[in-house]
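S1.2 Input.
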Amino acid sequence: MPAKDTYHDTVRSALIKDGWTITDDPLRLVWGERDFYVDLGAERVLAAEKAGQRIAVEVKSFLGSSQIHDLEQALGQFVLYRSILEELDPQRALFLAIPDEPAEILAEPVGELLIAKHLIRALIFSPQKEEVVRWIR
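S1.3 Output.
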């Protein structure tokens, strides 16, 4: 099983504060003979929907020396996990959890491109407050 990201517990707390129930920590995906682990699985039951919403969240710290390198690595992992989830659990949406300060890269042209091309969904969180700041769907 992979090591937890620096902000794993922070994101877990932020999701709970945001009304999510953690269902998997980690969420195990099996494809072929390989096991993959998304950091968190969660669900939220909405009054209007009996089935509710289900998400998977991959936590990234973006603490490396290059935000672009961190983004490249996170995007590769995100695309891999999303592809597997689309086959195994198509009702579960995958989000990349990014701290609020490094998340500013998503407001730059490269981030806007990824969002416009629907290549990424993100959960922006405050590490200090342990809260979800915003969702990028």
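S1.4 Remarks. Residues 14-50+69-94+114-137 form a domain with the Trna Endonuclease; Chain: A, domain 1 fold (CATH 3.40.1350.10).
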